Each structure stands twice: as C-alpha cells, then as structure tokens.
Task: inverse folding
C-alpha cells in the first residue's frame, strides 16, 4: 500500500523525516518496503521568458535566443528546439543546474556562439519520456521563480507499506496516521464530516415495485 508522507501530516503533526517515519513504523510491526521521493526537484531550473530569437549564423537548426529569468541580466542561450519563439515563458536550466541523468549545465560555446543555460523540454526535466520541443509554460507563470514552486509541484515521499491480514484498520491514510499519533503522542486530526438531513421522505423519493 502506498502512503503519502505529506498527506499523513494533514492528520497528525510530526517532525520525523520520511526515512525515520519508515523505521518507526517498522518498529511497531509494519513492513515498510520502500521510501520513494516524488515531485519535481530541479534546483537551478527557473521560469524564463524568451525576449528574442535569431538564426544561428553557423547552424541551420539552431537559434540564438535572449532570455530573461527576472533579473537585469539577459542570458544568451543557443536552442535547437523548432518551437521556440519570442515571448514564450519557458523552463530555463541556469549555469550550475543538474538535470535528471546527471547532465550539468555549463557556460559553453555552441558552434562559436556563447550559451549560458538551456531552454528545456519536459523530457529533459524528467517529466515525460518524449517531447517534440521545449516546454511552453502557461501565461501568468511567475517569471524568475523556481519551476517546481511556480507550478505548484510539491516534493513528497511515498512509503510502500505491507499490511498484514490482521490489520485491516491500517489500510488507509487515516489508519496509518492513527499509528503515527500513537508513536509520537500527538493528537489525530480527523477531517470534519457533515451529513445534512434532507427534508424529503425516502418513501416519496424512491418507488419499489416487485
């Protein structure tokens, strides 16, 4: 069973890391098989805007772009995507960023032109397996913000817990939260649930014929 670390925190307060939580649950009889980090964790990747685009003088399939990431300085970036255009909001991996797969962004010369960053596709960011071009972000995405923060991608951890047949009460987030409350001594915060009564009688709303 997969349990969200962040979701558990909605039901009980605790300061343990996901790994510490897994160990604590194991000590009270649950088998935590794995703890997996989820979410978009891309330090150095921010929201940028393409200010201009021109043809590369020495490569037909490359473009010379001028990009702002919110500061006064504008970044020259060589881009090979066919769909890049002036005015777009795009994810920009700045110099020093490391993309999935260990690809590090450095200041470089590409066919004689300086490039100080990379305009990224969803595939390059590890969000999808394939991409036809760069990722064009929605209008209104805040310029200069870290991409994960701007798009509301929150880092979470999934705990893969094996529940034994004698513990059906633990087959839910609230069930596991109850265990965490017992471990920490903190109160369990259950959601408020209301069942408003209707004025219509059942006999008037439903007809049964045999």
Result:
């Amino acid at each position: 069973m997969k349990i969200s670390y962040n979701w558990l925190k909605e039901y009980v307060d605790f300061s343990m890391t996901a790994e510490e939580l897994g160990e604590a649950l194991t000590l009270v009889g649950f088998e935590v098989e794995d703890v997996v980090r989820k979410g978009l964790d891309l330090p150095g990747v921010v929201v940028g805007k393409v200010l201009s685009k021109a043809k590369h003088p020495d490569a037909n399939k490359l473009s010379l772009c001028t990009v702002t990431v919110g500061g006064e300085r504008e970044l020259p970036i060589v881009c090979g995507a066919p769909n890049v255009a002036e005015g777009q909001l795009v994810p920009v991996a700045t110099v020093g960023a490391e993309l999935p797969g260990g690809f590090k962004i450095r200041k470089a010369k590409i066919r004689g032109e300086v490039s100080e960053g990379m305009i990224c596709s969803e595939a390059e960011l590890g969000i999808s397996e394939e991409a036809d071009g760069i990722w064009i972000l929605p209008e209104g995405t805040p310029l200069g913000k870290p991409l994960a923060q701007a798009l509301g991608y929150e880092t979470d951890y999934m705990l893969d817990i094996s529940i034994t047949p004698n513990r059906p009460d633990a087959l839910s987030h609230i069930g596991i939260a109850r265990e965490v409350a017992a471990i920490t001594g903190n109160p369990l915060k259950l959601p408020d649930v209301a069942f408003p009564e209707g004025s219509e009688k059942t006999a008037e709303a439903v007809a049964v014929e045999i």
